[in-house]
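hey m, so remember when u said the tokens were messed up on ur end? i reran from scratch. heres the input so u can diff it against urs
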Amino acid sequence: MLPLSAYAETPLSAIDWLAEHSIKGSPKLSSTPDLRENPALSATVSTDIEVTVLRDIQRDAVGLLPPEVTGLPVTLWRNSTTQDLLSLLEASKVSQNPSIQSLTMRVMLAEGDAPYDSNGKFNFLRAKLEKLIQYGAIDPALAMLERAAPLPAPLVPILFDLSMYSEALEPACEQVLQLGAAFENDSARIYCLARRGEWQSANIMLTAAEALQSLTPRETALLHFFLETGSEKTSDLYFSADSVLTPLEYRLYEAFGEPVPANDLPLAFSVAELSGDKGWKAQLEAAERLSKSGVFSDNQLLGLLTKKPAPASGGIWDRVTMIQGLEQALEANAPARISDALRTVWSAMGTSALATPIARLFYKRLVAANLLKQDLVLVHEMGLLTDHYQ
């Protein structure tokens, strides 16, 4: 059910160690026992047995990384209740500590048995997906949903949101419209009807939803402008700093030329800023944010930072100039230039959240450069932030 035609051609994730492993299907449970074959059972067996399909339990066990990659046992969740796990995930905040980031990603993507009370509502899988979204790890979340295919109705809303964040995937409108009235988000259904070219149906549904007050005032105003109904309710369009912006609203603002900058929005919105259509500065800011959360490739970050000379100074352009200076000094193999550039970069960014990706990018090359002892002390300090710390 997943619209993967565009997505399948792109990398699953910016996380270098992410790998694919399939999950085997399971047979379905049979229904309740036939008491006519054994009347003795009728006194002890209730016919009101809740039957859960094994496949539904397996969806809560979906992961991308097998135990031999994560080092975590498949029994990791088995003896926990779903509610305990949901409470722990909710209490876990997004961290800028690289070690915590790496461990969080490993745990969220690990294959493991479902909690013993998994009930086919997919609450645990949904919670893991929401945690990935909080970190801005949209591609891994999409890959998890691909493993859960065919996708059950309760997971379609999160697929729709993920498709709004991602530039690599068409909006998941086919799944939304297949559910019809069972899909409770009327704004998504209206949007999807319009994208499919059914403008009259979209207008009728918008009128009905407005009468039933199933949309917020801002959703109503945005959809009127998106459908070009001629509505003059512009006062509800404005987005305040304390508002919670939905992924669909973000795309609607973008659709009629009033994009909302992602800098002050949750991390997942930065993924949409990586498109070349957004401009280099927006891409750089998005890449830095996602690098700080540990879900953007170091090499991709370096590629963006060294794409072309900085057109101005101050802010992000100073960081671009410093990184380019260090990269050019290393390419020229000029120890004096390397030393100056290294000290400039590390004094400016050595205590920031970008210190770890910078250390991972340059440590090996700096060790190989012919630097003085005092410079090597600084280089080995950087090395403590890399996998070569030992």
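this time it looks ok to me. The first helix runs from residue 54 to 59. if urs says something different then somethings off w ur setup not the seq
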